[in-house]
Amino acid sequence: MADRQGLRFGYTLMTEQSGPKALVEYAATAEQAGFDFEVMSDHYFPWLDEQGHAAYAWSLLGAVTQVTERVELMTYVTCPTMRYHPAVVAQKAATIQLLSDGRFTLGLGSGENLNEHVVGTGWPPVNVRHEMLVEAVEIISALFDGGYVNHAGVHYRVDSAKLWDLPDKRVPIAVAVSGNQSIDTFAPMADHMVATEPNEEALARWDSASGGESRKIGQVPVCWGPDRDAAVARAHDQFRWFAGGWKVNTELPSTTGFAGASQFVRPEDVADSIVCGPDLGALVEAVKPFVDVGFTDVALVQVGDESQRDFLRFAEAELLPALRSAYA
After folding, report:
1. Tens digit of pLDDT for each residue in 173-212?
2. 111 part of a folded domain
3. Structural domain total, the chain
4. What is the CATH number of the domain that holds 124?
5. Nearest to 316 by CA among 11, 5, 4
6. What are phi and psi of 217, to 5 degrees?
7. Is 282 among the domain residues?
8. How many whole angstroms separate alpha carbon 324 and alpha carbon 289?
């Protein structure tokens, strides 16, 4: 069993399923409910048409810094390689760090075709995407160091760039990894690890390659609701794309593609992978695989916009106390 000291629970501001004003409201309410941190997705498209939203994450983060005071904030995750030039990502992250008084972590990843294809430069193979992410992290880190940065690389050029509003507290960088190659590449470059699977060997490999302790940040979708059948139906409607796994999810280019890929996913299939309904014990157990292998931070995703307010009340009254009792 991993050492649970300092285990923290987060709330996901999912831009694909809620509009911008609602997300700002949920951010303030989640802090009041007692969540330790909040993560925000950064998408140009929802996964499915049924979700119906995709507001600009960085405008939202600026607003969220002004309605919260305590919770840490994080992108989960931003792709700094195609839609955004890495020099611009560094500027945005520094600004959010200043607005939040040092509460921001820049979560980075190699992206999905769904969101990055919109700039019309194609979708490179995975090895090229990793090369691009390495170069992007190098540029962002150099700009965080201060002073002028020039860079002439394989994928990017930077000409005399400088962050004029640089926070006193350097923005921590967390990178999403999946296999051994990405762990070995990014552990020495990043402050923290993001992963979608509770793999103890991967966490140990990260610690070995990083040369020190760092946060390991995961995410667990749940679909809480008083009626289990209604919760299963909502999870199937909104989250059946989740069944494809990340290797598939990174490659599909459109919501139509996700609809086609998930057309044979049944409600019971979704319920097998996402805890649905009112069972408090089952919700607490959903986090256990991540806790057991040593994750330090686990963010919950509540499926469905219409359920968020009730979920946050439930989290404050029952779920967060139960999680802390079970895992603290």
Report:
1. 999 998 899 999 999 999 999 999 999 999 999 999 998 7
2. yes
3. 1
4. 3.20.20.30
5. 11
6. -115, 120
7. yes
8. 15
Which residue type is seen at 136? A
Decide if 3 is inside a domain: no
Beta-sheet pairing, 104-108 with 149-152: unpaired
Three-class SS of residue 202?
Answer: helix
Tokens of 14: 């999912």
Do residues 19 and 53 lie in contact, with contact meaning Cβ atoms separated by under 8 Å? yes
Whether 2 is in a domain gets the answer no
- CB atoms near residue 166 (< 10 Å): 19
The 3-state DSSP class for residue 148 equals coil
**Which H or E run includes 38?**
strand 37-40
In this prediction, residues 55-74 reach a mean pLDDT of 98
User: In the prediction, which pLDDT does 295 show?
Assistant: 96
pTM of the model: 0.96
Give the three-class secondary structure for 136.
helix
Closest CA to 173 of 142, 207, 129, 205: 142
Local structure of 82: helix, strand or coil: coil
